[in-house]
Amino acid sequence: MPLAATLRHSFLLRALAAGLLVFGVLSLVLPLRQAGMLGWCANVGAYAALLFAYLGDADPDTMRRRAQQLAEGRAVVLTLALLVATASLLIVALLLATRNQGATEQVLSIFVIIAAWFYLHLLFAQEYAHEFWMTGEGLDFPGGEDEPSFGEFLYFAFVVGCTFQVSDATTNTPRMRRIVLLHGMTAFWFNTVILASAVSTVLSLAG
């Protein structure tokens, strides 16, 4: 099945397995809520480590081969990853809103929110890279090479995530613009929730 093959090659399942392992071990010695938060952070850390290990200094042929492996079912994988990230952010935001957390959980909540924010933009950096290497077009990086490194896609993803717009690197296909639109809207929603959570945390600490 195409989706099964995509999941097999995806970093998503391997990172999730690492997060669940950390959660399982820590749940033996910590409250479940704290173990879950640390497990989520481990999941994001493992995903980032896999991403940089495989794509950080990958040559164009490796990037192209990787994109072909994940071609089928890519949208499903991205959707599932976004749902997981959104759920983690909402759960922590709701916990902060109740103001029913100790100091340890408040600190862990901040790390969970930061991890969710980075996870979102790493997902889209990989999505931009895959789209570019599947079609050979979609983004123009001024002053760069015709075959950009993964760092260029990271740059583009975090610019969109921080500013909700493109900067010197520009899109040149409708499909890439739709991906940027989805990224910008999701990032705006994430940042809104993060800002509200930060205000809630400050009020909780002050009160």
| Radius of gyration, CA atoms, in whole angstroms | 18 Å
What string, H for helix and E for strand, traces the elements in order?
Answer: HHHHHHEHEH
Provide the spatial order of strands within the biggest beta sheet.
1-2
Shape: globular
Mean pLDDT: 82
- Poorly predicted regions are none
Extended strand count: 2
Explain briefly what this protein structure is.
This protein has helices at about 1-10, 10-25, 30-55, 60-70, 75-100, 105-135, 150-165, 175-205, and strands at about 140, 170.
Structure, described:
This protein has 207 residues and is mostly helical. Helix content is 79%, strand content 2%. The protein contains eight helices and two strands. The longest helix has 33 residues, at 103-135. The chain is globular, with a radius of gyration of 18 Å.
